[in-house]
Amino acid sequence: MRWPGTGRGKGGAAGAVGRHLVKRSFTIRGHRTSVALEPEFWAALDAAAAARGAAAAALICKIDASRTRPLASALRVFLLKTALGLGEAQGADGPPAQT
């Protein structure tokens, strides 16, 4: 079964992947890479970076340095932990701190 809106056709706006993901490219430790996330996650990442007084690329580099899973997943988990107020004590995508 194919879910609506999950096709990966070409075309559309620059940076668009499929119908629901937006791809951004940046440099991490001297290497070009790209990540595809939903627009809502990009907005949350931009807001998290601004709240820290940093550029989104700088925050992505920080998350990348401590990740234990694919970068897109690490970014989503970081943003979820941020939204839930779980902090960064255990790294960007590690388990939440025990209380």
Termini separation comes to 43 Å
Number of helices: 3
Order of helices and strands: EEEHHH
Average predicted confidence as pLDDT: 80
- What overall form do the CA principal axes indicate? globular
Low-confidence stretches: 1-14, 95-99
Strand segment tally: 3
Strand order of the largest sheet: 1-2-3
The biggest sheet amounts to:
3 strands, antiparallel
Strand and helix layout:
Elements: E1 16-17, E2 21-28, E3 31-37, H1 39-51, H2 56-65, H3 71-84
Antiparallel strand pairs: 1-2, 2-3
Provide a concise account of the structure shown.
By secondary structure, the chain is α+β, with helices and mostly antiparallel strands.
Features:
99 residues; alpha+beta; 3-stranded antiparallel beta sheet; 3 helices; 3 strands; globular; disordered N terminus; disordered C terminus
Task: Outline the structure in words.
With 99 residues, this protein is of the alpha+beta class. It has a domain at 17-84. The chain has helices spanning 39-51, 56-65, 71-84, and strands at residues 16-17, 21-28, 31-37. A three-stranded antiparallel sheet has the order 1-2-3. α1 (39-51) crosses α2 and α1 (39-51) packs across α3 (71-84). The protein is globular and about 30 Å long. Mean pLDDT is 80; it is low at 1-14 and 95-99.
